[in-house]
Amino acid sequence: MKKIFPLALIFAALAVFSVSCSTKYDASPQVPGKDTTRNPFQGDFTATINGVQFTADTKYFTDQSHDNIRSISISGVQDNYDKDPTTNKTIVITIPDYTGPHAYAVDGGFSGGATATYIVMDSGVVTTYMAKPNDTLSVVNITNGGDKWEGTFNLVVAPNGTGDDDNYTITNGSFSIPK
Which member of 43, 72, 87, 178 has the greatest number of CB atoms within 10 A? Predict the structure, then answer.
């Protein structure tokens, strides 16, 4: 009897443990009265930068209106492999006059277009590359602005958004970020 009781306790603990771990984790439960902050790990934000895969670990968006002008910003941050907070890469896409899902030319934010920035932080040193305005390869296409932000993008970025040296070509960009 003395050996059966400890074994029964072990099996009961294993049963409770397996039941408690079998439910699906909900990263953003909708509980009344609780914090409704969006989890920045949800969604997808990927691109290819000069042939190297970019996959954002955290994804963010803002959606603001001021004087009947709606502005959105969508960004993805790829952490360094060792999670060093002083080393990461970020892509930020901004549409200062958002008018709904459709293609936006990258024109520096003029004429209803978009702006984009590629930020490289290496050991705390920040280098910013801006999308070259009116480059025929640069476009942001918003395909869904409903329950999630979805779209694609291609960009050519350069220091200060000008010049032909030290450019990055960002292709096959896509994002799907729940609101």
Answer: 43
